[in-house]
Amino acid sequence: MQDFTFYSPTKFAFGRDAETRCGELVKEFGGSRVLIHYGGGSAVRSGLIDRVKKSLDDAGVSYVELGGVHPNPLDEMVYTGIDLCRAENVDFIVAVGGGSTIDSAKAIALGTLYDGDFWDFYSGAAAPSKALPVGTVLTIAAAGSEGSGDSVITKKSTMEKRGTGGECIRPKFSVLNPALTQTLPAYQTACGVTDIMAHVFERYFTNTKNVETTDRLCEAVLTAMKNEAPKVIADPNDYEARANIMWAGMVAHNNIVGVGRDQDWNSHGIEHELSGLYDCAHGAGLAVIMPAWMTYVMKHDVMRFAQVAVRVWGCDMDYANPEATALAGIKAFRTFLRGIGMPINFEELGAKVEDIPALVEKFGIGDGKTGGFVNLDRNDIAAIYKLAAEATL
Ligand code: NZQ
Ligand code: ZN
User: Fold this and answer.
1) Shortest CA distance to 63 belongs to which of 153, 137, 166?
2) What pLDDT shows up at residue 25?
3) Which among 13, 167, 315, 351 could disulfide-bond with 309, CB atoms 3.0 to 4.6 Å apart, if both were Cys?
4) Does this model's pTM top 0.85?
5) Considering every ligand atom, which ligand is closest to the CA of 69?
């Protein structure tokens, strides 16, 4: 295991009606003038925004609002939010929604205290060092942004989707009420589960030796998702299954399952070009990319793929032919994804095989290589897109 520092200071308020604590939490972290930031309307329709406002009113905290965050959040909303925060002397942002809204809030939080263009943080021209404090009220278990120091934004003019990260944008608090996720369409629920599993897989496939504890934690989260996801697809009101998925979304991405080991993240990079170009759901893109990446890199460490096949998917270990076990695991993953309603190839996602050269170009590694488990060049990336395009069960 490698040396590491783990510091993840978000305060979580978990359970039924937890959003009523929003005002109290904002005050605890020093907020007095809040921007309530939300998405395309689900949080308004469910009455959640009114409940958050009441909680702020009860705590004597004033606020302004900015709704309309697009899934795969856009830079233009960030600029609007920065102007509003400055004009209204906002000192705390509460994001009510999913990863898109939370990431947009984090970008506004960064940009408000920065003299230049906030995109500098996403293009790599600047590193985050200060931001307005952010709190979240999560409505979909997926991205893990409620506990992470990451944010992903799309620049509309070029459809480039880029991320940034820093401790200053890790949420001060996050309200996690599983009942809030009961209004999600089955497709979005499944996209969320896929993203959660992908966050674990990106950490699980590592070259670091002797990481049994985090291996087993990863396998536990994956197994829980395998068991809990079909329950919520069958019964969207299954609170207990929703609760398990919601906590898994946080655990999968605040890095508790990924400390002390190299991680990969190429599947995420390869997917971000799909959701950047086609505006598809990130989780759906991952359902198409992740198994294709697995198939392509499997030979690098067949035993690790066989291990997850046996421990998570319940495949029999074929000691004479571990590759067969590894492949059976990937097939089981794809079958699971199909079972919860996810696309498994380009056609089902709405992507086009003829766009592969453009996707590779946007991926942007030129003649270089990238990856933490297997280093890939542009030809490898193209081959993975091709495998994803043609995938079948
Ligand atoms: O906008 P509204 O009307 O709220 O509708 C949303 C949106 O259409 C809807 N929704 C959310 N909660 C709902 C609901 N509908 C009914 N009932 C509810 N309770 O769901 C749709 C998707 O929402 P979104 O926020 O886009 O989902 P998600 O949480 O999956 O976030 C995706 C974004 O997060 C980024 C992705 O790239 C993508 O842009 N990621 C962020 C990460 C991070 N910051 O750490 C890591 C991830 O790997 C990921 O890249
Ligand atoms: Zn993700």
Assistant:
1) 137
2) 98
3) 315
4) yes
5) 1
Q: Kindly give the pairing relationship between strand 173-176 and strand 11-14.
A: parallel
Q: What is the pLDDT of residues 66-86, one digit of tens each?
A: 999 999 999 999 999 999 999
Find the 33 Cα to ligand 2 centroid distance in Å.
Answer: 31
Q: Please identify every stretch of the chain with a pLDDT value under 50, giving residue numbers as ranges.
A: none
Instruction: Note the pLDDT of residue 81.
Output: 98
Question: 198 C-alpha to center of ligand 2: Å?
Answer: 6
Pocket test for ligand 1, best of 151, 152, 199 (most atoms within 8 A of CB): 152
72 lines ligand 1 (CB under 6 A): yes
Question: What tokens appear for 144 in the block?
Answer: 């893990």
Q: Is the CB of 152 under 6 A from ligand 1?
A: yes
Cα of 157 vs centre of ligand 1, distance in Å, is: 21
Supply the Cα-derived Rg of the chain in whole angstroms.
Answer: 20
Partners of 262 in beta bridges: none
- C-alpha triplet 241, 204, 282: angle, nearest 5°: 60
Task: Note the pLDDT of residue 159.
Answer: 85
Question: Could you tell me if 182 and 234 are in contact, meaning their C-beta atoms sit under 8 angstroms apart?
Answer: no
* Full DSSP string of 331-367: HHHHHHHHHTT---SHHHHT--GGGHHHHHHHH--TT
β-pairing verdict for 160-165 and 150-155: antiparallel
CA of 228 to the centre of ligand 2 (A): 19
- With residue 42 as reference, give the H or E element that holds it: helix 42-45
With a 6 Å cutoff on the Cβ, whether 39 touches ligand 1 is yes
Say which amino acid occupies 204.
Answer: Y
Report the pLDDT value the prediction gives residue 273, as an integer from 0 to 100: 95
Whether 219 lines ligand 1, by a CB cut-off of 6 Å, is: no
**Tokens linked to 267:** 């599947």
Distance 32 CA to ligand 2 centre (A): 32
Atom number in ligand 1 closest to CA 38: 4
> Which ligand 1 atom sits nearest the alpha carbon of residue 45?
3
Q: How far apart are CA 208 and CA 1, in angstroms?
A: 7
In sign, the C-alpha dihedral spanning 256, 146, 207, 337 is: positive
Q: What is the pLDDT of residue 94?
A: 98
